[in-house]
Structure formats: structure tokens, C-alpha cells
Write a structure and sequence with these properties.
Length: about 375
Amino acid sequence: MAELQLDHITKTFHDDDEGEIVAVDDVSIDIADGEFLILVGPSGCGKSTTLRMVAGLESITEGEIRLGEAVINDKRPQERDTAMVFQSYALYPHMTVRENMSFGLEESTDLSDEAIDARVTESTRMMGIEDLLDRKPAELSGGQQQRVALGRAIVREPEAFLMDEPLANLDAKLRSQMRTELQRIQEDLGVTTIYVTHDQTEAMTMGDRIAILNDGILQQVGTPLECYHEPENLFVAGFIGEPSMNFFEMRLEGDRLVDDGFEYALTEAHRESIGTTDRVVLGIRPEDIEVGVDGSGSHHYEVGIDVIEPRGDENNVHVTFEPAAADPETFVATIGGMRQATPGETITVGFPPEAIHLFDAATERTLHNRSLETIEDVEVVTQQ
């Protein structure tokens, strides 16, 4: 196993119509030995291009990629000691599972047939597909094909795994199951892994850390909870989380934020974090909004219920400050699945001061986040 370092890597494409296109712009990430890093971002943000540069499938315009002590920029893909798992599985249709998994080792190593067979057997046992060795891909389900593709990477015993949306073609239930399997396998093997996805659930639940890209630019690298509760800018705050964080662009007037629909009184800590900025975006996550509370004042508001989205374990309540307006601006609050709300009714909501986020409206940089220090540990019961 080895540390993987992306040192100021840039990828530029040239288009006859649009000229120079910067797909990845000066990205630097240090990935620790054995770490599971998730590369996440919207379509076209550069995450797959970054992964392909690490794999050697795309050339690097600028920067260096180091695996362990070696710079691998100019090495061919088969010389990089990495193994890639594709979204399309990329299995040979005319070969059996055994042949698919052993082919790469036969072509690129000097291992004996016995050693190759031992690796294949161990890998299929780990993936739970040892009874499928003599089947061909057309005889397998999507989940079984994905396990074969993962097993084919495992038998390589690489220094790093590179995974490009490997679960995207699976149904929701199987995708959830495979997320757990992948985490277990990665922990068992301890192999440095980069995993590309646009799925926030995968990003939040699978990785040791998340690296968030947008328009080829690295926005933030941190643990899932850091990126969720302490986003470094407006993009990260809006991209991570479902439903998305609610945003209200407001102007500063003394110790209050003022919008056409409502006002918000700032605490001393909020006011200090804003400094001289006069246009501020107030953000609050749907689950942090207090719904149906008794309260009045500058942090509680009467709102009209517009739409309810039942989800079983919880309900998303779309509400507005001006329910009678022709085109009201709505925001979302989340309540428990056993609580009911009715469209057209008026309720009281609260924006707790300790839960809000503040951003500079001009630069979109974070001015104030809620603190991770408020997270509570689950009480552990010690058996006597």
C-alpha cells in the first residue's frame, strides 16, 4: 500500500470551436496510505478526468502524481500499480468469470498458474461469487457482474484502487447493499482508494474524507461531517445535503439581517464574523428548522404551508413567508414521519441562532458555520 499525492495537477483540452478548456484546474490532494477518498461533484466538474489522470488514461498538462515515492506521470497504465473499476464493468463477454479475473494477471505478471488460481479463488470468496466461476457475464445479474469487476481489481493486489461510479448501474436496494460491501472490503484490504461519484449518499456514507470539485476547481477536502456542517463556501453548503440547505440573500442593517420577507437578529458572534460585509447569505438546513413551535420574536416566523413531500421516516414541508403572493419563494423544513402538516395552513417556524450559516454574498466564502462541538456522542452501555 502507498500514499497517493496529487500535486497541482491540471488538465487542459483544446477544442476547435471553444479553444482551450480547463477540465481540472490546479488540484492538490494528499491521500494517506489506506485512506478511502471520495471525489464528488456535479456532472462535468472534472472528477472522472482527475481519476483517469491517476490511472494513466489521460495525460497531465501540469503538475505531478506520486504513488509512494515514485512520480507516475509518464508511466503507462499497466506500470502504475493501480487497478481501476469502471461504471460499465468492462468484462469480456466471451470469457468466464474465472478467465475474466485471471486474464490481467496472465498478461502482466510472471505469476504461475497456481498462484493466479489461488488469488482468483480468494478474491471470489471475498466477493461471495465462488459458485459463479464458470459462468459468462451474460449469465450474471448486474450485481454479480459488479462483484466480478471488483474481484478482478482485487486480484491485482495494487497499491491503489481507482473506482469510477462503480455502483451507478445498480438498482437502489442493491446499490445500498454494495456500499456496505465496498466499505467492508476496503477496510479489510487497507488499500488506498479514490472513489468517484455524483451521489451524495455514497459520498457521505462511504469515505474517510470527501473532495468536492466544481468546474474543475477543488472546493473543499474534509470528513463527511466537516463538509456537511462546516462548508467552506456557498457551493459546498448547497451541494452536500438532501434536501439542500436553504439560502436567503439579505442586507446588513446594524445588528440585523433584513430581507423583503423577514428579518433576523444577529448574535454578537454572528455580527463579529460578518465584519464589514454588507450583503450576506443566511443558510439553514431543513432539519435544523424548528416547525410548529411556540415562540415569537426575531428568530420565529409565521409561514404558510405550500407542499408536503412524505418520505416515510420524515416529511419535507415546503413553506413560504408570503403564501398569498403570486410567485412565493419557498424554503424547506424537515419534520419526523409521524408528524402531519396540511397545505394551506399557517404554522410557526424557528431559525435557532446556533444552527445558521452565514456567507459573503459577493465572494460566496463562508463567514460563519455552526460548530461541530455541539455533536453529541451516543451513550455507550458497558456490560458488567
